[in-house]
Each structure stands twice: as C-alpha cells, then as structure tokens.
Amino acid sequence: MLISTVLTGGTALAAPTVQNNFYNVVMQDGADPFMYRHTDGFYYFTKTTGNNVTLWRSSTLTGVDAGDTRAITTGGSGVWAPELHYINGAWYIYYAKDDGDNANHRMYVMQNTSANPMEGAWVDKGQITDSTNRWAIDGTVLQSGGQLYFIWSGWEEGVNVRQILYIAHMSNPWTIDSARTEIARPSYNWETNYSPNVNEGPQILVKGDTINVVYSASGSWTDDYSLGLLTAKTNSNLLNASSWTKRSTQVFKTGNGVYGPGHASFTKSPNGQEDWIVYHAAKRQGSGWDREVRAQKFTWNADNTPNFGSPVNPNQPITLPGGEPQRTRYEAESGRFGGTAKVSQHPDSSGGAKVGYIDTDSSYVEVDVNAATSGTYILYARTGNGTAGGAWSTLKLSVDGGAASDFYVANQGWDNWGTSTRKLTLSAGNHTIRFAKGTGYAELDEFDLFRIGN
Fold first, then answer.
1. Is residue 44 part of a domain?
2. Of the candidates 248, 282, 316, which is a domain's last residue?
3. CATH number for the domain harbouring residue 217
4. How many angstroms separate the CA atoms of 189 and 168, rounded?
5. Share above pLDDT 90 across residues of the chain, in percent, rounded to a whole number
C-alpha cells in the first residue's frame, strides 16, 4: 500500500471547525446525473444504474448520496440516463433501454400521479418515438410557450455513423406528434475527434428569451468529453433547424485536475438564489467510463447564456449551496488510532494530513464528535482507495461501540479523493465514530457532520 511520509511526534491536532464549504465529489460513483429541486423543497436525483431506474430524495444538494432511495423496474437492460420531470401535476421518468443489443436502444416513459414520486405506482406509458423509430437515447423535455417538445440523441439511419440531436413536438408527456428535426450534428474538431462522432445528453436551461440546450460531445470514454451549447429564442419556431445556433467552442471542458466533464443537469440551491451544474467526470485521468458526480455553482452571461467557467480544483473546498446547513469538520489525524493505522502528510489532504495503513483487523481510527441536538445527521467523508485491481473497498463504520456496517469507498487511486456518505441518527451530546479495517484498503482524510430535517 503506497502512502506518504509518516508524521513524527509533535504534530498539533486540529480541533473540529464549523465550515460553510465542502469538498467535491457529491457522489463517488456514477454517470449521467439528473437532479431536480421540486416545490416541496426536496432534491430528486437519478443516474444510470443498469437495469432499473433508481431515485434519490434529499433535503440538501450535497447530501443526495445519503438520501432515501427507490428502485423502479423497467423490464429491460442497458437502462441509460434516466430523467425525472414534473409536468402538468404528474411525475414522468424518461429513460433509454434495450433488449441486450445496443442497436435496439429506444426511449421510454413512465408516469406517477402521486405527490411524492418515492410513493405510489409508476405506470409504464410505453415507448416514446417519432415515425422513424430509430436508435434513441438521452431524451429530455422542453416546456416553452405552453407547448411540450422532446429533444434526444439519435442515429440518422439504422447504423451508428454519428449521434445527432433531434427535436419533435409532443401532444402530451408520452406522445410525439411531429416529424423529428435535426438541430445539431457533430461538426467542430472537438466534436469529431473520435469515431463515432457524438452529440448527446441534451439538457435545458431557459433564461429570459433564450433557450439553452447544453449537450455533451466527443467520446464519453475519453478525457476530451465536454459540453457544448445550442441556443434558440423562445418566440422562434423551434421545429425549424435554422432557429438554432451552435456555439463553436466548448462551454465546459477538462481542467484543474478534472477530466472529461459531461452529461450535466442543472438545479437551484436550497435558498433558490443560486444556479448549480451537476455533472459527471472521469474519476481520474484516463479512467474512461469509470466516473463520479460533481457539482458547482455557475453564473450567466449578458446574453442569457450560462457561464460555467472551469471545473473547480478537487482539492479546493467550495462554498456550500446557499441555504445548506453548515457542517462541523473533523480531521482524521485528530483521532485515536489502533493497530497499524497512522497519520501521514500529503499536500492534497485537508489540513495537510490523512490517516492510512488501516490494514489489519485490529486497525482503526476513531474520532469524538458532538451532536448539538438530537436528530438525523449526514456523515460526509473524504475517502481514498487505490487498492490493486480497481475493486471497491470498505471501512467498518460504528458509533459508540455499536454494530459495525460497511462504509463503501470507490477505487480512484491513492490521494485522489472521493466522498463516502452515511445517514446517522444521533442523540444530543458526545459520540465516538470509528472507522475500522474492512475489505481492501482505504484511507480517511476528514469528515463533515451536519444535521438535516427539523
């Protein structure tokens, strides 16, 4: 197990601190994130999970990984990029699936009329398609001028030459009633540098009189994956290709140690005052489809187009979304250690140090924490795993000497931090949280503790 120089005696222990920031990553594994903040104040989240659609529900943006979940069966395979929309008083999930053959990927939709999509029945409304019935993924809904439109990524013919963005009119949330119109095909060098050429993952941002379609381009399996931008005016004929203008340069791309950012969605901060981009990126340089979910605030240009800037450096904490609760940060190096566990220095660690070598059955780090009031808390830990072979690792997490449970740590390489989370119920007062040896090998940098709910 590789680890940095071990600290010697005399190192000062860092006291817990109250923080108004967090370390990106918001979900340590996953791709094609879709996050929506509803009028009930909750965040609803989904991502590609395989053969089902899984929904997460959370009161905070950064705590979504520890949110409540519900898995919904689809009866298919290759379920990609699901999205959750609230339209005309009902919930809809749009998703792509196939029968085991990628050439048969098509878009489908299901409906739930319950107030809470985590409850009630999800009813299959069938395939949603235009008359060509060709390969289709990444469908999303645009509501504009009292009309509904479906935008998706599809094949021009019956074979995979390139992926093109199409739009069509909808008569209701599960029916397309017009011919498809091509609004974007890969054309610039940064869109055509891999074969097949790709435009995919369209997402909608409307500001003022401008409709922004933020889409993903280049190879999703590469570090060159990035975001592009299409725009149209709200009063234009959106089924006319000439109404749409494509920007010649990317609006979000690899930078600051974040590789292949793409397939974004957009949401508001809890106080409703800030705009946030939620996107996936490669876990490390060259990791391809091994991805994680990140989030950061963005602003607007004078022409009502989004200004995403560059990905924030993963080792620099960023200010919490407005309205999220502050959190208490506990540095792992301030804990007590057993077995082979010990502290080592590293410049990319919070506070400049971390705890590793939790390598034997008797190894652990335990930290004393304080819960100001009784309630539900989220433990948001900065964790690392570079175990040979690329497998997940676990630490054994316990509170106050109680039963230990698996605390999962994605494999991202040493000193390339991810985020592991857990929802805890704590009574007011002092507690001891222990992270002990589990499967594989894992390191702990720090963890935040914050209360959610009333």
1. yes
2. 316
3. 2.115.10.20
4. 27
5. 96
